[in-house]
Write a structure and sequence with these properties.
It is a single chain. The protein is an all-alpha fold. It contains eight helices and no strands.
């Protein structure tokens, strides 16, 4: 719950920064819109991005888990990625990212609580679904550029970039953790075959 609260606080702070920036540009005469417009336009874009994320997440939850192939090369993490993620300090911040799958799917990816091959297979499938969801959130968020085409550089782009930030970090975490989970899964399968 604490991590979700942090997400909401960060979202509100980003909205306020966008509003204050545009309010300042308005008051300085750089742009010809009112402070009232800056307040509501920033709020409207922020809420739109949030709702588009909810829509994307809801649609991705409909992906049948039995159709996900955990052995597919599409979801394979490349060798160079691990070093890239570690340079970003992923070990330090990965546990600070909100994990909503446990609340939505009834299966928390915050920690390992099972020991069977089936458990790890489901864990990997939900990791893949999570990655797809966050990619789709970014893609769907781009719709705001068409809806809010006025003042793209000052309103839409900064808030879209915040949305990308919120969605790309969980993708990094999924891709960083999945190879470890896959190795454990293969060991569990091997153990059950003996």
């Amino acid at each position: 719950m604490l991590r979700l609260k942090g997400y909401v606080i960060t979202l509100c702070v980003c909205y306020l920064i966008d509003f204050l920036l545009n309010m300042t540009l308005s008051l300085c005469g750089v742009y010809n819109f009112s402070v009232f417009f800056a307040f509501w336009y920033s709020l409207l874009i922020t809420l739109s991005l949030f709702l588009l994320d909810v829509v994307a997440a809801s649609l991705c939850r409909l992906i049948p888990k039995n159709k996900i192939n955990i052995h597919s090369k599409i979801f394979k993490t490349f060798e160079f990625e691990k070093g890239f993620y570690e340079k970003l300090g992923i070990r330090w911040w990965k546990n600070k990212i909100p994990e909503l799958g446990g609340k939505l799917e009834g299966f928390s990816k915050s920690n390992i609580s099972g020991d069977s091959p089936e458990y790890f297979e489901m864990f990997i499938k939900l990791s893949i679904t999570g990655e797809i969801t966050h990619h789709f959130c970014i893609l769907l968020g781009a719709v705001t550029f068409f809806i809010f085409s006025s003042f793209i550089l000052t309103f839409t782009l900064p808030l879209f970039l915040v949305n990308v930030y919120f969605n790309i970090l969980p993708v990094f975490v999924q891709r960083y953790n999945r190879p470890k989970l896959y190795k454990i899964y293969l060991k569990k399968i091997e153990k059950t075959r003996r």
